[in-house]
Amino acid sequence: MLDKISKWDESLFLFLNGFHSDFWDPIMFLLTKTQPWIPMYIFLSYLIIKAYGKQSWWVFMAAGLTILFADQIASGLMKPYFERLRPCHEPFLEGLVHNYGYCGGGKFGFASSHASNSFGVATLMVLALFFKYPAVKWLFPWAVFFSYTRIYLGVHYPGDILMGAFIGILSAMVAFFGMKKIRDLILKNRKKPQQQPT
């Protein structure tokens, strides 16, 4: 069964990776990096501050924990454990993979940290901001596009992306609701009446 799933994954990868052109190659290579999206992250930070004011600290801590969990689970735990070669490193796919720029940050690609981080950010922002800014749901299409650049560039299979997305969504939920619980406990303790000394 796992072999059949792997074959489907490889076939879907070759299909999606085949949509490339000399025009889009450098654009996709640029957009797969973090730097072009920094203005978006700054804007999201502004929305958090505007929505939460002095209580923004716990949302920013949840964001930091989301990235920490998502990145460490995908890159620190799963990649060295499963040791699944990236498509651009796979000998039997040599000559079939369109790889532009470089072949990822290491030999192994399961699961995608790009996908885990982007879906983590999207999930956390929707959990934190949807009540006031419903338009933040557009971050999910962004996460899909950001993740697809990895397939386009030949460094991840679709299965790497799907598992990365799952890790990112789960990491964001754990971080958000965990930090929300901590915030509620802190606020509850602050509201307790101080006992007068006898």
UniProtKB/TrEMBL annotation:
Regions that span the bilayer: 27-49, 56-77, 114-131, 138-155, 161-179
Domain of life: Bacteria
Protein's recorded name: Phosphatase PAP2 family protein
Keyword Transmembrane found: yes
Keyword Coiled coil (UniProt): no
Entries under Pfam families matching the protein: PAP2
SUPFAM superfamilies (alphabetical): Acid phosphatase/Vanadium-dependent haloperoxidase
Key words of the record: Membrane, Transmembrane, Transmembrane helix
Ranges where the Phosphatidic acid phosphatase type 2/haloperoxidase domain occurs: 59-176
CDD domains per record: PAP2_like_4
